[in-house]
User: Fold these one by one.
Assistant:
Number 1:
Amino acid sequence: MAEAAAGKQIPYSWEGTDKRGKRVKGKIVAASEAAVRSEMRRQGLVPVKIRKQTTLFSSGKITPGEIAIMARQLATMMASGVPLVQSFDIIGNGHENRAMQRLILDIKSSVEGGTSLADSLAKHPLHFDDLFVNLVAAGEQAGALESLLDKVATYKEKTEAIKAKIKKALFYPIAVLLVAVIVTTILLIYVIPQFESLFSGFGADLPAFTQKVIDISLFVRTKGWIIVAIAVAIGWSFIFVKKRSRKFRELLDRLILKLPIVGQIINKAAIARFARTLSTMFSAGVPLVEAMDSVAGATGNIVYENATLEIKDEVATGQRLQRAMQDTELFPNMVTQMIAIGEESGSLDNMSAKVADFYEEEVDNLVDSMSSLLEPLIMSILGVLVGGLVVAMYLPIFKMGSVVG
């Protein structure tokens, strides 16, 4: 199967009989039907039926969440005594994402060829960062790969949980505002013109508010493409500059940290990731100075990343971690005091983990609070937009009714 993993991988479903004559079935990813038969025979199975599997899950994208799940599955299987190569085989053949299947089976093939797991993972830097690779390498060197994989899995799960919380908090208001824009646009393009033709027969001046809405409707219908073009140009320029300019990303990250509510969430999330990564690396036996590079990359904010690299430089010259963190003026007093206690008691990993737990809970609470605050605010905005248009269209009718009365 090492050769199969190197070629184009195709999902197959198979049926066969085992040594006792019992009917068994399963799925496997291989380069050809012959490779499937060979693998089945190697496992003591007699092939009965093999067919290519058509699947809708052929996405070429591998998400961090899938990497976290893979780490947890590996940790669980190795804790149960399943050999590493067989663990990769089971996980890869059972995965619905074709890209993830290819990745896992490629790693399996590399490990079967005699390459260490850490080096095999390092061949895929887009999916396995330095922290992941360094922890696995430490586990292999110490003979505690099972324990380190469990730490990696826990780390990935917690960091992904924070990201998911923040995305969830931001998705709802963005979705509602997008719906508000779509509804407003439909009213301006299709509904307002109907009222405009009705009002043209009144022979009287329209209220200023109504006339303004009609003017906006006319502009959207005749020159709306200008608004769309400007919005697309601004969005494309923003993404282009953000990808290519570190200074722009740093400016953006600084501005985000100063935003009300959202800034607090990002601040606390960065501190939580800093502490969680520090705890995970230190408990794995990685020297503090070396660990700071992975910690910097894991914070998710350039401001905290730069501060962490400054901390690394100070610690490398003999400065205490607590003092170096205080010098950045980014970390709350509670965090630095907990780190100081950890340094003095020789339990820096445990104290960092407690800091991470505390700030992860703080992020959860802030996200829930923000959702509660934004919900009525967004509904109010939606009501003002749609309700304002409706009122503007009915004002002339109310005016006409009062004149007739």
Number 2:
Amino acid sequence: MSNKKDYYEVLGITKSASKEEIKKAFHKLAHKLHPDKATGDVEKFKEVSEAYSILSDDKKRAEYDSYGRVFSDGAGPGPGAGFGGGAAGFDFSQFQDAFQNGFGFDFGDVFTDFFGNQGPGRSRRGRDISIDLELTFAESVFGVRRKVLLAKSAVCETCKGSGAEPKTELITCTHCNGTGKLHETTNSFFGTISMESPCRTCHATGKIPKEKCHTCRGEGVYRKQEEIEIAVPSGIDGGEMIRLTGAGEAVAGGTSGDLYVKIHVRPDPRFKKDGTNIVTELNIKLTDALLGAQYTIPTLDGDDTVTIPQGVTHGELLKIVGKGIPNPRGKRGDFYVRIKITLPHKLSRTAKGLVEKLKEEGI
């Protein structure tokens, strides 16, 4: 790459870009342009790598900004810099730092993205599935069992995932010669990499069925409608997630993914949660606040009666024991009634006279 190349333009950033912005720009372009990717471009990948090697180094960047080239390595970067043994202008540790330290994940993830999850000892795993589930307020308090119908890849019930027609003979896989493994060579900027991956034809078993399963056509999995029961625990809150291990997408020769269920609770205008307790509000008349009374109120267990003591104050909480939210040990919280005293907007002549008498008595 020519020294006259605008490194900032190569990474698609401005000259005032921060180190973090430089890392992010390089990370995005490196994943897109890497030669082992479908969208890869060898020359452009070299360009962005060279640009990053300069702009991520404070000293080299300062020299480049001042003179349009770098002198730190004894010579400016030449065409194809950053690849091969000790080529000037590309520090591999910076490349690793951009991925690992700058973006919070292990550098091994880069190999997974570029070459697939095919390393020795790695088993295949199906995709996870995420769904949303809406509950009523009462269902979130007491828990509930719900059944959902999902269209997903599932293990074939006929062959139990083997891909073989029942009672058929198993023969040696001709693709891997019965080893269950394939040896592949990949050329990348790291050099020539020899990789060992599981054979997908026999799912790393070294054997294939002489006659394929008629249901899944030898795949071991097939797409179907599957009913799954979800046990929602008591006391769950909106936004919480339930994980069902192995209830996600199935994959031949591997383990199924997981099903994640995000909970949404439909609000109930009558009730609010407060830890393991439930709070409701009750509007009462001024006379009932002064003299006391009994009110029938709704709870999650049905209607109940609450006694209003004489002289109750506005905002005071009255407790009904054991009518709240169950905890994991089965014990329930309490049900609280917050008193709201309703004052009349207008008084009749008689009522006004009675209130004035109360006032005279200092009440």
